[in-house]
Write a structure and sequence with these properties.
Number of helices: 0
Structural class: mainly beta
Number of strands: 9
Radius of gyration: 13 Å
Distance between the termini: 9 Å
Strand content: over 45%
Order of helices and strands: EEEEEEEEE
Number of domains: 1
CATH architecture: Sandwich
Length: 104
């Protein structure tokens, strides 16, 4: 299971994920103007995209978000995804009830 919650602060949009071991985000990509990185707050995850990278607590990983990618929890983990150019398309219109939940 993956729980998420997101927030916006000026030009920064953040999505925090709490991931059970073995869970994974769906394969996806982002618009070219959405600069994106991952900060591992706890645990161990594997980034699978143009490269395959193992990331551990304290790691900050910057990558080309326009390329398809996923993140897999090797163990129970918490990550923070930061979009550095504001809120991605479609998120601003979501009701507050959808600012947190469980990844389907």
């Amino acid at each position: 299971m993956i729980k998420y919650n997101w927030y916006r602060s000026g030009a920064i949009f953040g999505m925090r994920y709490e991931m059970d071991a073995g869970s994974r985000l769906p394969m996806h990509s982002h618009e070219s103007d959405t600069l994106h990185n991952v900060i591992v707050l706890s645990g161990h995850v594997r980034f699978d995209g143009e490269t395959l990278s193992d990331l551990h607590a304290g790691d900050v990983f910057d990558f080309d978000g326009t390329k398809p990618h996923t993140i897999i929890a090797v163990q129970k983990s918490t990550i923070l995804n930061l979009n550095l150019n504001g809120i991605p398309p479609g998120y601003a219109e979501l009701p507050e009830s959808e600012h947190s939940g469980v990844v389907p």
